[in-house]
UniProtKB/TrEMBL annotation:
The keyword NADP does not apply. GO terms for cellular component: cytoskeleton. Pfam families: LRR_6. SUPFAM superfamilies: RNI-like (SSF52047). This is Leucine-rich repeat protein. InterPro entries: DRC5, Leu-rich_rpt, LRR_dom_sf. It comes from Skeletonema marinoi.
Amino acid sequence: MRRMRPISAWRILLLLSTTQGLLGVGREELNAWWYDFFQLGEDDDLGWLGYFIGKSVKLQCLDIQYLPEDDGGEQQMHAFSDGIARNQSIQKVVIDNVSNNRFAAIARALGNLSQLEELVFKRNFNGGRNNVNGFTALGTLLESGVSKLRKLDLVGNNISDAGVAAFAHGLRSIGPSLKELDLGWNSIGNEGLSALVAALVNCTSLEWLNLSDNDFSLAAAGLVSLSDWLQTA
């Protein structure tokens, strides 16, 4: 692992990108981000990175841009996930372009992060059964104890009605902590909208909801229910 510049940070961002990967370490200074970078090579140990994450007390944001199925093998992936599970400082996680299996492993680890406040999940899975399985894992994560989650960004995942049904039970569990929910560009139809409205009953502190560019009709029963819910929330 080649260090390009030294670490001097109190607030850290890790960025994993492509099979070669980028591990970015940044510090906040006068409201601006300054970044130091590491390069992850093909022979680098993903388990070592997990060890670093688990030991860090300053890491606040973990941004996983790409994590292919064969990167490091299952043993290294297990060690990587264990490191995430041990961390006590991460408040924001971004997961972009990972497979169902990889997300399931990460989701199990995130269930231990009671301090997690923001989860951004985009461009993941490839539709079909794997998509449903992945969002079932997301629902389990939301039920697992991420009680401080304030923002859930699921834009652009092609969730569909089946996907909404798969994680809706998790939304019920989050309850009043959730303030922002983004479900734009997800092919959600009338059935999915109805399931979503039923799940939002416990989200009494929701302040921002994005449902743009989905597939439900303006005459959908779920939309009427949503309107009624918004007026009483």
